[in-house]
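Supplementary Methods, section 5.1.

A reviewer requested that the exact input to the structure prediction be made available. We therefore reproduce it here, unchanged from the version used in the analyses.
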Amino acid sequence: MATEQEIEAVVGRVKVARRRADAVRLVEIMREATGVEPEIWPGNIIGFGSYHYRYESGREGDTVKVGFAPRASALTLYGLIRRYGYGSDEIENRDLLERLGTYTTGKGCLYIKYLDDVDTEALKDLIRAGYEAD
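The structure derived from this sequence is encoded token-by-token as follows.
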């Protein structure tokens, strides 16, 4: 579990005041949605829960169940975008994404410029779904 000072240090590095305030809000939203306390992961990722993965190749490791990194251009959220099978373009929980509002996606990340651009309840539902996924 991260201390409040560690969270504040990660969030405090964000130069854009509005994004920094959003990061503070997002910590609380993720706490509420997951019921767990955050941890700091490499890359200044604020994570909630963890899971162990193992690929068919034998590569394995541990990563966050859900989390985010407050970056200069957007909040980068992890664990919320899951695809139906390797290489698939079909994303699980598309209905929640349709409710979410303004966002972009990467390979496995969800990018939100500002929290005011999204439906907070849809975001909480996405966080819960990501956290509860196997």
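The radius of gyration is 14 Å. These observations are discussed further in the main text.
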